[in-house]
Amino acid sequence: MDNEQILDDLHAAIVDGDPEAAAAVAQTGLTAGLAPLDIINQAAMPALKTIGEGYEAGEMFLPDLMMSARAMEGAMRILQPALTSSGVVRETAGTVVLGTVKGDIHEIGKNLVGLLLSVNGFAVHDLGVDVSAARFADKAVEVHADIVGVSALLTTTMPGQKAVIEALAAAGLRPNVKVMIGGAPVTGAWATEIGADAYAEDAIAAVEIARKLVGAAPTEGAEAAR
Ligand code: HCB
Q1: Is the CB–ligand 1 distance for residue 60 below 6 Å?
Q2: Measured between alpha carbons, how far is 34 from 87 in angstroms, rounded to an integer?
Q3: What is the pLDDT of residue 224?
Q4: Ligand 1 center to residue 152 CA distance, Å?
Q5: What is the DSSP letter of 131?
Q6: Domain 94-224 of CATH type 2.60.40.10
Q7: Residue 142, SS3 per DSSP
Q8: Which CATH superfamily is domain 3-86 in?
Q9: pLDDT at position 44 over 50
Q10: Which value, to the nearest 10 degrees, does the dihedral of the CA atoms of residues 220, 222, 225, 226 take?
Q11: Which of 22, 110, 126, 185 falls between 20 and 30 A from 151, CA-CA?
Q12: For 203-212, what is each residue's pLDDT tens digit?
């Protein structure tokens, strides 16, 4: 089976919401020598985009989204250890508190950001999903965070990112603790509007931006995870 077929099969398994097939194809991809990050970027993420577009067009429904998310998790169970073991971690690049805002339970993208930051030497404290602004601020104090990464996938929960910035400011942490925001509906313009330090379009960008925010020289960064 050629690599293109493997990527097509994984795309199909995620769109079809088949966790077992997704895990099996992900394993086939690794065995064939595909880099875990390439499998994620070239098959898994486009599949989620397809599902999202189908949902928006009224051609797919919430159970479809949920099945696809499970299939993505099936693939990630195989890909995550491979991604972790391919990273070269030498020292702690910085401390990051990460989470998805209150009212929002999307976690796939946030988990990917956390994984790539860890692989690239950051100490990541993942608060999970549906996290209040106060909890972000408390954790940032507790672990002496350099960066707070805030994910939001719904237009209705994006104001939660602003609330996190306000909570950090109220705790006296700004501007020393940097805020990096992301999530499908989030833009650079929104980051500017709410006073975030950075917007990261994807997990690879998040690593490079995090390095810049802590003043570390850019290195092979996300490339180390390939
Ligand atoms: Co969800 N959902 N969903 N969903 N969902 C979206 C996000 C829509 C865009 C689908 C659509 O309509 N086209 C839409 C949001 C519309 C909007 O507001 N603009 C939507 C909706 C409406 C909903 C519900 C309201 C549906 C309903 O109940 N009627 C509901 C909300 C539940 C809630 O949160 N309260 C809901 C539920 C779900 C699940 C539970 C079924 C499932 C999530 C499962 C899980 O995470 N465990 C789900 C999924 C899977 C999606 C789609 C299909 C994929 C999201 C995803 O994982 N993308 C999504 C469609 C889409 O986005 N194309 C759809 C892949 C990751 C890798 O991308 O953007 O999350 P990402 O993350 C990137 C990037 O943004 C950046 O790096 C990541 C990695 O590259 N990044 C950061 C993210 N966070 C960062 C933080 C940083 O500091 C830095 C960078």
Answers
A1: no
A2: 15
A3: 31
A4: 8
A5: B
A6: no
A7: helix
A8: Methionine synthase domain (1.10.1240.10)
A9: yes
A10: -80
A11: 22
A12: 878 988 999 9
Ligand 1 geometric centre to CA of 154 (Å): 7
**Is 217 close to ligand 1, i.e. is its CB under 6 Å away?**
no
* CB 164 less than 6 A from any atom of ligand 1: no
> Is it the case that residue 41 has pLDDT exceeding 70?
yes
Is pLDDT at 216 greater than 70 in this prediction? no
Whether the Cβ atoms of residue 203 and residue 113 lie closer than 8 Å to each other: yes
Contacts with 151 (C-beta within 8 Å, 6 or more apart), sequence order: 98, 99, 100, 101, 104, 106, 107, 109, 110, 113, 181, 182, 183
Helices 62-86 and 108-119, interaxial angle, to 10°?
Answer: 0
Instruction: Give the span between the Cα atoms of 205 and 38, in whole angstroms.
Output: 15
pLDDT for position 185: 97
In the prediction, which pLDDT does 149 show? Answer: 98
Contact 23, 78 (CB under 8 A): yes
- Provide the sign of the torsion angle of the four alpha carbons 41, 46, 48, 53, taken in this order: positive
